[in-house]
From TrEMBL:
Highest taxon of source: Eukaryota
GO BP term, example: glucosylceramide catabolic process
Family as reported in the entry's similarity comment: Belongs to the glycosyl hydrolase 30 family.
Location of the Endo-beta-1,6-galactanase-like domain: 22-195
Signal sequence, renumbered to the chain: 1-19
Pfam families referenced in this protein's UniProt entry, alphabetically: Glyco_hydr_30_2 (PF14587)
Alphabetized UniProt keyword annotations: Hydrolase, Signal
GO cellular component term of the entry, any: membrane
Tagged with keyword Signal: yes
Transmembrane annotation, as ranges: none
Record-given protein name: Glycoside hydrolase family 30 protein
Organism: Tulasnella calospora MUT 4182
Recorded GO MF terms: glucosylceramidase activity
Length: 208
């Protein structure tokens, strides 16, 4: 979900059928394996969380991660910003794919550094960092939102060149900044909802 898009919360009425359906759960049969359940504090939520006073902050963390007084979540998903200054580690284009990137790291990452470290104190080890998009200057539509393609992927060329390696470098740099803060990012994603150009989105903090 790009930060720039207008978010409209939707209540979805699934229209549950009235007819009874029998659901049989066989706990002895292993089908899809579930690694765990998690939460995201993207788009500044981690910063709001971090800014709480000590007591509600600890209570909130307990609710999420404590295995005795909370949900015992084991996964967090952080957002790798792709916008301008204050959002992305590469807010301005280096001019060309081979130009020297001027990375910017504030050590806070909209509260997600704090949130990751806090989650780790509860035993969370699975830290998924996901870019909702490449920075706009690396894409065919020049925008981090509204679809578009990474310049250089199959069938997509840009006058500015092939940005695939530059984008990979950008993602790796993000992981390195976390590593320097003592946080091991275990999973790395490079996109989110690539086909979605609608203004109305279903917002789920972990899935979208
Ligand atoms: C949290 O506090 C910092 C420091 O005062 C501030 O820069 C930041 O904007 C605050 N975050 C939110 C979401 O209000």
């Amino acid at each position: 979900m790009p930060a720039s898009s207008k978010v409209v919360a939707l209540a979805v009425n699934v229209g549950l059928a009235l007819a009874q359906t029998t659901v049989t759960v066989n706990v002895g049969s292993l089908l899809q394996q579930i690694d765990g359940f998690g939460v995201s504090q993207a788009f500044g939520r981690a910063s709001q969380f971090q800014n709480l006073t000590a007591s509600p902050r600890t209570q909130g963390l307990d609710y999420l991660f404590s295995t005795t007084t909370g949900a015992g979540l084991t996964i967090i998903r952080n957002r790798i910003g792709s916008g301008g200054a204050g959002d992305s580690i590469l807010p301005t284009s280096p001019g060309s794919p081979t130009g020297t990137p001027s990375y910017v790291w504030d050590g806070v990452d909209a509260g997600q550094v704090w949130f990751s470290q806090a989650a780790m104190t509860y035993g969370v080890k699975t830290i998924y960092a996901d870019a909702w998009s490449a920075p706009g200057f690396m894409k065919t539509n020049g925008n981090e939102a509204n679809g578009g393609y990474l310049c250089g992927v199959t069938g997509e060329t840009c006058s500015s060149g092939d940005w695939r390696q530059a984008y990979a470098n950008f993602l790796v740099q993000y992981v390195k900044y976390y590593q320097q803060a003592g946080i091991s990012i275990t999973h790395l994603g490079f996109l989110n909802e690539p086909d979605l150009v609608l203004v109305v989105r279903f917002c789920h903090p972990l899935l979208h």
